[in-house]
Write a structure and sequence with these properties.
It holds the Pfam family PIG-L. Keywords: Zinc. GO terms for molecular function: hydrolase activity, acting on carbon-nitrogen (but not peptide) bonds, in linear amides. A seven-stranded mixed beta sheet has the order 3-2-1-4-5-7-6, with helices on both faces. The protein has one domain: 3-Layer(aba) Sandwich (Rossmann fold), CATH 3.40.50.10320. The relative contact order is 0.17. The protein is α/β, with parallel strands linked by helices and about 260 residues long.
């Protein structure tokens, strides 16, 4: 059995992008570690021991069978045209020095003796600035730690377009049009791994439902979350029961 580390941008990404994969790995007996770059908050951390979104992340992770959760120490950079100043207690992830952040992540990879790193494709999936930074930091951390296997979570663009069309028919208010996805995610030719995780759809949906602050919010993404967690399990599995990766593992020279 091996240790697999999944590096994500925000609490809730672990469920949306890799939830089925993490549940499957845990079910197969592997040690699963989730590292999140940000705590998902735009402002200063509350005075209590842990921010609400990190607490929700730990609940979600437990439902998926994750063994350890680590916050890398950064603040959410937000998604939109405005990049706000850093909160007084920490730097926004997109402003972090890539080498410094990569060394933080590499330290965890080494400590865990991780056999595989999961992170994001070069587009950061749908293009969030923190997701793109996860790709940059993850790639460098894997180099520093000499991690043997590196897989980038993504989705074929044509599949993303079909899912957006289906979501719109189900009145799930996604912000993207199918046409906008032409420059996001990855071409099908780049995909190396396609996992059917419908067996773990209930776990993935329950993990998503653990992010109560997102579900109970007032923004457009909260409306999406509410719709997703209320879908019948088979329909949720139809929408989010497959996960895709690009294998970018380093080529090792043969030993003499």
């Amino acid at each position: 059995m091996a240790t697999v580390l999944a590096f994500h941008a925000h609490p809730d990404d672990e469920a949306l992008l890799t939830g089925g994969t993490l549940a499957r790995l845990a079910d197969e007996g592997h040690r699963v570690v989730v590292v999140v770059a940000t705590d998902g908050l735009m402002d200063a951390v509350p005075t209590e021991a842990e921010s609400p979104r990190l607490h929700e992340l730990r609940t979600s992770a437990a439902l998926l069978g994750v063994d350890r959760v680590v916050h890398l120490g950064y603040a959410d950079s937000g998604h939109g045209p405005i990049l706000y100043p850093d909160p007084p207690d920490r730097r926004r992830f997109v402003r972090a020095d890539t080498e410094e952040a990569a060394e933080r992540l590499a330290t965890i990879l080494r400590d865990e003796d991780a056999a595989m790193l999961l992170h994001y494709d070069p587009h950061g999936g749908y293009g969030h600035r923190d997701h793109i930074k996860v790709h940059q930091v993850g790639r460098r951390a894997a180099e520093l730690a000499k991690t043997p296997r590196v897989l980038e979570a993504t989705m074929p663009r044509d599949t993303a377009e079909r899912l957006v069309r289906l979501a719109h028919r189900l009145r799930i208010p996604l912000r993207f049009t199918p046409e906008e996805l032409n420059t996001r995610f990855s071409p099908r030719s780049a995909i190396t791994h396609r996992l059917d995780v419908r067996r773990y759809a209930r776990q993935k949906q329950a993990a998503l439902a653990a992010h109560r602050s997102q579900i109970n919010g007032t923004g457009r993404s909260s409306a999406v979350f509410r719709k997703m967690v209320r879908l019948p399990s088979p329909l949720f599995g139809l929408l989010l029961g497959r996960e895709w990766y690009i294998d970018v593992s380093p080529v090792r020279s043969p030993q003499p």
